[in-house]
Design goal:
Layout: E1 2-3, E2 10-14, H1 19-31, E3 35-39, H2 45-56, E4 60-64, E5 67-71, E6 83-85, H3 90-99, E7 107-110, H4 113-116, H5 121-129, E8 134-136, E9 145-147, E10 155-159, H6 166-174, E11 182-186, H7 193-205, E12 211-213, E13 217-220, E14 230-232, H8 237-250, E15 253-257, H9 269-277, E16 280-284, E17 287-291, E18 299-301, H10 309-317, E19 321-326, H11 338-348, E20 352-355, E21 359-363, E22 371-373, H12 379-392, E23 395-397, H13 410-414
Parallel strand pairs: 2-15, 3-14, 6-7, 10-11, 18-19, 22-23
Antiparallel strand pairs: 1-23, 3-5, 4-5, 7-9, 8-9, 11-13, 12-13, 15-17, 16-17, 19-21, 20-21
Helix pairs in contact: 1-2, 1-7, 2-3, 3-6, 5-6, 6-7, 8-10, 8-12, 10-12
């Protein structure tokens, strides 16, 4: 996909629906008693893989326009198939590993080669501590997983949270249906805390109780029942970060609608980061307005907002001076090694960078130029460099279809910057 320089000075775009909220709403509606409605869902690859897997477990999910209707199971599944192919979806693997522990009989969770290379040992260890029977089908510590538990007995699980909060979300989402109370203990520091906040918020909307004690321990009474709910999915700040970035590095004004300014999404901080770097960021009613300016480098801890590293790295490339994004080491284990991908592809544009547990970018607004970008089959790498193309022109992003994971109509919406 060839991206040429921006042609408009003022652009209006709408943020797509929130990925994290949609995933949790679909899962919780499937665990609830009664029929739930999920309005304005994001139907990217992660969501579609989750829906397909839940249907294979016997959940009835229908779609009419921009609304999903989900007939919940109350946690009592009647599986139609015994193997679930989750594609590249790490979040589906993590959440369904716990859900599969509620399904009678064996369930195998598998996926693409990329997914099978992503470690899940911490999650499996947590499930085993709660009394679930989970085995590795091939390589120790990695999917495919074979889940044999007919229930989640409950108890205490001590799990590392430094790589991702998804393990805690996975355990928490299913724990209200455990036979006994569940206590989740964080063995270190919980990363990506805003995503766990969304998990607990959504659990509450479906009627479950959980107590978060400063992210050190989470207490969840067992034997609860999820109730059906009517959910309207808010806009996605992660996806909106690319439009914010566009305004910051092109000098144009980008008006973004559909965002909740009071959202629990941690990625709303991208607007603050860009403002600190020098761009104009303001609210006009319910519309976020971003206008570019000369950018300054930034030093920022990214521990709670790892998905913002790719777009912020692009902003840093256009800021004169050295930027340091700290606490990013676990980005080696995302859809690709995002740190190596950023270093490699930034170099093609003339920008030097290096990484270990931090990412250091030597920004120079005069340096970036056109290049053929390999997104490493990573949606966020593809979209970040596409936005760079709006500023410099001549960016050709290979394998553009990878954006379907989180933002299926990204390229269509990008057309607003030219037409």
């Amino acid at each position: 996909m060839n991206v040429r320089k921006i042609e408009k000075t003022t652009i209006g775009v709408k943020a797509p629906p929130a990925k994290a909220h949609t995933l949790r709403a679909i899962l919780l509606a499937s665990l609830a008693e009664g029929t739930s409605r999920v309005r304005n869902p994001l139907l990217g690859e992660d969501q579609l893989h989750l829906i397909d897997a839940l249907r294979r477990l016997g959940v009835v999910i229908g779609q009419t326009g921009e609304e999903l209707t989900i007939k919940g199971t109350g946690g009592e599944f009647t599986p139609l198939y015994r193997e679930l192919d989750l594609g590249e979806s790490g979040v589906a693997m993590n959440t369904l590993a716990a859900v599969a522990s509620l399904v009678p009989g064996e369930i195998t969770l598998t996926g693409s080669a990329g997914l099978l290379a992503r470690p899940v040992a911490d999650l499996v260890d947590g499930l085993r501590q709660l009394g679930c029977e989970v085995e590795y089908a091939k390589k120790e510590g990695f999917p495919p997983l074979v889940v044999k538990s007919p229930s989640i007995p409950g108890g205490t699980a001590r799990v590392s949270g430094k790589k991702t909060s998804q393990y805690f979300s996975s355990l928490a989402l299913s724990s209200p249906l455990a036979l006994h109370d569940v206590k989740l203990l964080c063995a270190d520091e919980l990363s990506e805390r805003p995503y766990f906040d969304i998990t607990l918020e959504m659990m509450g909307l479906f009627g479950a109780r959980a107590e978060n004690r400063d992210y050190r321990e989470v207490l969840i009474p067992g034997g609860q029942t999820y109730r059906s709910a009517d959910i309207v999915v808010e806009g996605d700040w992660s996806s909106a970060s690319f439009f914010i970035l566009a305004g910051a590095i092109t000098g144009s004004t980008v008006r973004i609608s559909g965002l909740n300014r009071e959202s629990r999404q941690g990625d709303r901080l991208f607007a603050d980061f860009i403002s600190r770097m020098g761009a104009s960021v303001r609210w006009d009613g319910d519309v976020l307005v971003v206008t570019g300016a000369r950018l300054s480098p930034i030093e920022q801890d990214m521990g709670d907002v790892p998905d913002l590293v790719p777009p912020l790295a692009i902003a840093c490339a256009f800021a004169r001076g050295r930027s340091v994004l700290t606490n990013v080491g676990r980005l080696r284990y995302k859809e690709c090694n995002r740190l190596e991908a950023l270093k490699t592809e930034l170099a093609k544009m003339g920008i030097s960078s290096s990484y270990d547990e931090d990412l250091v970018i030597e920004g120079n607004p005069d340096a970036p130029g056109g290049a053929v970008i390999d997104p490493w089959n990573d949606h966020r790498i593809a979209m970040s460099f596409a936005i760079a193309g709006l500023a410099v022109g001549g960016i050709d992003v290979l394998h553009p279809g990878c954006v379907a994971k989180s933002f299926p109509d990204f390229w269509e919406r990008l057309g607003a910057f030219w037409n």
